[in-house]
Known about the structure:
By secondary structure, this protein is of the alpha/beta class. It has helices at about 60-65, 95, 145-165, 180-195, 225-235, 250-255, 290-310, 345-360, 370-375, 380-390, and strands spanning about 5-10, 15, 15-20, 20-30, 35-40, 55-60, 65-70, 90, 105-115, 115-125, 130-140, 170-175, 200-205, 215, 240, 265-270.
Amino acid sequence: xxxxxxxxxxxxxIFDWVIPKEWVIKDAYIKAHEKNIIDINKNNLHVLNYSxxxxxxxxxxxxxxxxxxxxxxPNTIPYSTSYYKPNIGFCMQHAKRVKLKDITYHxxxxxxxxxxxxxxxxxxxxxxxxKTILISSYLCHPSMxxxxxxxxLVMLGLYDKIKKWQNRRYNYLFLINPETIGSICFIKTFQxxxxxxxxxxxVLTCLGGPNKKLSYKKSRIGNSSLDKIFxxxxxxxxxxxxxxxxxxxxxxxxxxxxxxxxxVGQIARTVYGKTTQYHTSDDNKNYxxxxxxxxxxxxxxxxxxxNDQLNPLKRFLPYCELQLGKRNLYPxxxxxxxxxxSSDKILNSRKQLxxxxxxxxxxxxxxxxxxxxxxxGFKLNEIKKVLDICVKKKLIL
Length: 397
């Protein structure tokens, strides 16, 4: 993806946040008798991210104050961070931790902090309207497969597919950023454009895990075009639907915050925090399957394509009911009596007549076929067939 890069320097105030200094980590280890107990060169999760430097000889009692492990996952290394508060820490398997002897250890973290910058990447595929769909993901979790790598991979796949679409209605804005602080910087730069033109958005995360169904977290608004599609798919048992929750999640919390309240949802497969692999060394290539990443790309593309084709409907003649009889679309004999053994053909024609009446009633330039489906209870494919007749008969523009 050809990204335009946006840099935000350390120390710059962005809304209520300040861009932190860049963390430079050169080495980290714990030694005993000149033998490494843990070593960042073997696994970069062994150090608490953003740790301050240390070079000390420590007793086991003092060393334990700096160690993070998971008691009920004894063979797993946790992924831990401390970005906005000075801290020192190591991460290791609990099984190794409990075997540490009461001797002196050499604890070393060679780290430093320098004036650097946040780096965001933005790319745009143009449509024929000003309305925009935001597709974002993040780059900030080292050595995480499902939690980190899957989102950017799905974004790459979607970019390649959407680029090939003919007659795109929406603009598609692709954003890659460090989670939270990166999206806050992006909002600061693009706030007016987003508030004016953003139709819907998706934050891509955790899309390579084993779950079969996609899971969508609605925007706080809850009625964007993508919110409506995912709600429809949920009713038909195709996806899992989650309500907006400001206490958990990813960058959608920034987009949906307070008076900004942009229509951005989040899409996942095996959702963060719901599995034991989350934020641990077990979130690896054995857990995240490329086949699931590809499934996510294909499924999300289909949904975005449906959304792109959901044009608001308008009639050629906007006022009052249209005379359908002269177009052979309404029965010439008006009778409420039907035979008990009416044929399927007659039943289908009456059903189609009802669908047509819904289409013509709600074709006001604001509603699309998904809106009409939700209002009427008829299925999308049923409405689409009748809509084709309406277009052919020049009832709908």
